[in-house]
Every structure is written in C-alpha cells, then in structure tokens.
# Entry
Amino acid sequence: MSDEERQQRAPKHVAIIMDGNGRWARRRGLRRTEGHAAAIETVRGIIRACARKGIEQLTLYAFSTDNWKRPKSEISFLMRLLARYLVDERKEILENNLRFTSIGDRSRLPKAVVRELEKTENLSRKNTGMLVCLALNYGGRDEIAAAAKRIARDVAEGKLNPDEIDQERFSSYLYTAGMSDPDLLIRTAGELRLSNFLLWQISYSEFWFTDVCWPDFREKHLDRALKDYHDRERRFGALEKKA
# Structure
C-alpha cells in the first residue's frame, strides 16, 4: 500500500485506554501518584502527534466510574492533577486551534474540575482543529442506561414515538451525540479488555493492544498502531474486496 493510500485510510477518530501508570511507577520503586504525574507528559505528546497527523478526534479514557473504588488519597491527587492540567494546557489548546470537550457524568466530579472543564470547552468552542475529548467519570453501561432512561422519559411525555427509535436516534441520546465512532481503539499496558469504554461506539472499531505502559507510550508506538490500522481492510460485514 502506498503512502498516499495509507493517508486516505487514516483513522478519523482514535480512542485510547491509557493504562499502566501504577505498574510503571511500581517497577521504578515510585508511588502510584508519580506514575499519574508522568502520564501527563505522554498525554501532551500524543495530542500533539495526533494533531500533526490530521486525526480529527482523540478520545482519552481518563477516569472511569469504577475508579472511585481506588483509595481516597489517590482519587484526590488525580482530581487535583486533572484541574491543574486543564489550566496548564489551556494556552496550548487555544494556540493550536484544538477543540476540547469531555464525556461522562460530571455530577460527581469536584466543582473545581467542572469549572475548568467548562472554561476550556467554552474558550475552544469555535476552534476548527482536532477535537480532544476526555472521558471523565465515564462508564459505557451507565451511558447506555442513562440514554435509555431519557428515551423512556421522552416517550412517556409524548416527545418521541417508539417506532422512531433506531440506532441513529439512540446514538443521539448518548454522551457522544454528534461525534463519529472511533475507527481505532488503542489500549496500553498489556490488558486485553475494554473496561466498560465506549461499548456502543466501538462496534466496528479496530483494536490495537501494546504491552507498553502509558507513561512510556510515544509517537513511535502510535505510528505502529496507525500502520497496523492502515494495513487492515475494514469490511463492516461486507465481503473482502478482490484485488
């Protein structure tokens, strides 16, 4: 396949399950929190790399609904780190014409985090570059259940005819309404599971797994994932194309 053909088949939307911060720290005799801090540099580098490569959307699984089970001290550190990241990265987001948003249930997030989320979203709303989306307090099953509740409410109130409910209409009730589905899902740190991430949206996504922990993930690893994606044939249930 030529470079031009690969470029034409580049994924528009890449989603990443950023895993392995704690293991990365433990192997180096560091605290888990130091692994989370190191991960910020990787986030910064991968956002820049994806933007350079013309990817239209990058969705990062930053904090799941299950992560509340972690020690309170670690959660508190993560939330402070997140709030500081949103402030520190705002200038770069704006200067590089990036758009910023998040998906998930914000009701449980600290007010300081929500405030900085909303500020960055509002300031970058009119930008036209890559969309950076953080999944925060996000769970795929919760998202689907919440969508079903909103649909049921609209049906009960006469706003929606049950016969009008199809895949497209259902998608419009999800956190990701208006977004394209991920073309490529990357997971780091050697785990081979989805961990409740974008369960509806990844029905036809290509998966790419690596043993590299997230703090060590670099553009060269992203390039390997993209090359692998480029070399696959996505048929969406159709027959293989003949040469």
